[in-house]
């Protein structure tokens, strides 16, 4: 009888545990807009002044998040989101610490580059997860993550940077990430 009660307690605690992301179940995407200028004082030739209109899209509270799940004997977690438009994200897999109930590394939720694909998209995201131990599935489930629009924030201050390389004035937009970081992402 004690074994049966212990098994019921384990199954109940596992089934009632709400899996999700450490960042929560609602994220806000925000467009950033600003302007910067770069003054160059090099002797390599090329322009000595450059201007850029900067734009960036960020996700709050963060563009990366850990998966948080049940404390069970698993060594890997895979996530795949079905977006509101019906498309699916790429499957993303990380190592899982069953003792803490958390992925060992965070997942890229929002950044899209040539080599990276985001897990989430704007709107409702139904995220399916699969926990495995040595390649064998030990638990599966899903959770919902909503990405809502936070509108556009404008940086009031124009950024000004100097460089000793005249090529920086030929491509001033390379300073945009630094500009938004320096201006606390237009807050």
Please characterize this protein's 3D structure:
The chain is mainly β and 187 residues long. The chain has helices at residues 2-16, 167-170, 176-182, and strands at 20-21, 26-40, 49-60, 64-65, 67-68, 76-83, 92-97, 102-103, 107-108, 123-133, 136-154, 159-163. Strands 2, 3, 6, 7, 8, 10, 11 and 12 form an eight-stranded mixed sheet that branches. The longest helix is centred in the N-terminal third of the chain and has 15 residues, at 2-16. It is elongated. The termini are far apart. Mean pLDDT is 90; it is low at 4-15.
Question: In a few lines, what is going on in this structure?
Answer:
The protein has about 190 residues and is mainly beta.
Which stretches are poorly predicted, pLDDT < 50 over at least 5 residues?
4-15
Helical content stands at: 10-25%
| Helical segment count | 3
Secondary structure: number of strands: 12
Largest sheet: 8 strands, mixed
Strand percentage lies at over 45%
Q: Describe the global form.
A: elongated
Assembly context of the chains: single chain
Counting helices, strands and paired strands, the structural category is mainly beta
Gyration radius, to the nearest Å? Answer: 22 Å
Mean pLDDT: 90
What distance separates the N and C termini? 59 Å
Along the chain, the helix and strand elements come as HEEEEEEEEEEEEHH
Name the descriptors:
187 residues; mainly beta; 8-stranded mixed sheet; two-stranded antiparallel ribbon; 3 helices; 12 strands; 14% helix; 46% strand; elongated
């Amino acid at each position: 009888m004690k074994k049966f009660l212990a098994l019921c307690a384990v199954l109940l605690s596992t089934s009632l545990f709400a899996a999700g992301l450490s960042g929560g179940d609602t994220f806000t995407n925000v467009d950033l807009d600003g302007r910067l200028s770069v003054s160059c004082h090099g002797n390599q030739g090329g322009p000595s002044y450059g201007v850029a209109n900067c734009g960036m899209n960020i996700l709050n509270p963060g563009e990366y998040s850990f998966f948080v799940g049940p404390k069970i004997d698993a060594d890997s977690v895979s996530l795949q989101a079905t977006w509101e438009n019906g498309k699916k994200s790429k499957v993303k897999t990380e190592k899982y610490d069953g003792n803490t109930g958390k992925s060992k590394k965070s997942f890229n939720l929002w950044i899209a580059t040539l080599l990276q694909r985001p897990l989430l998209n704007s709107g409702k995201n139904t995220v399916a997860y699969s926990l495995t131990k040595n390649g064998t599935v030990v638990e599966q489930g899903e959770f919902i993550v909503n990405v809502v629009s936070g509108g556009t924030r404008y940086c009031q201050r124009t950024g000004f940077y100097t460089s000793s390389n005249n090529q920086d004035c030929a491509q001033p937009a390379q300073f945009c990430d630094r500009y938004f970081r320096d201006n606390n992402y237009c807050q």
